[in-house]
Amino acid sequence: xxxxxxxxxxxxxxxxxxxxxxxxxxxxxxxxxxxxxxxxxxxxxxxxxxxxxxxxxxxxxxxxxxxxxxxxxxxxxxxxxxxxxxxxxxxxxxxxxxxxxxxxxxxxxxxxxxxxxxxxxxxxxxxxxxxxxxxxxxxxxxxxxxxxxxxxxxxxxxxxxxxxxx
Length: 166
Description:
This protein is α+β, with helices and mostly antiparallel strands. Helix content is 22%, strand content 48%.
């Protein structure tokens, strides 16, 4: 929980562009203000530290309004070494049946800080589908309650991944 709060403070500072201010003052400065390169570098370093050796689980479910559902669940492990592992499970269910598929990807991760927000950047180097060679930018958002969202989906777990990163 402490890490999510630290990320929330970084998000407020980044989006306000006023990293030298307290979070309340930064929020008052408004989005889109210029962020100095030194402040962006400091926030990027802090955000990397906060996300390193963490397992994040996020996803969403959609429906056609009656009986068909598609659920996507992503498990993302971010290691302090700069490597990541991602497993994406997509499930479909309806009154006539269902199916499930799983994709895996490995590569390098980093953080991008800009006036548009905070992003976890995944450089996919190996994948069991056609994602290899692609770069994914997952926007990191924190709402007013301190709940995290990655790529628009709620982060359901934010656990240590020390064992996974050995």
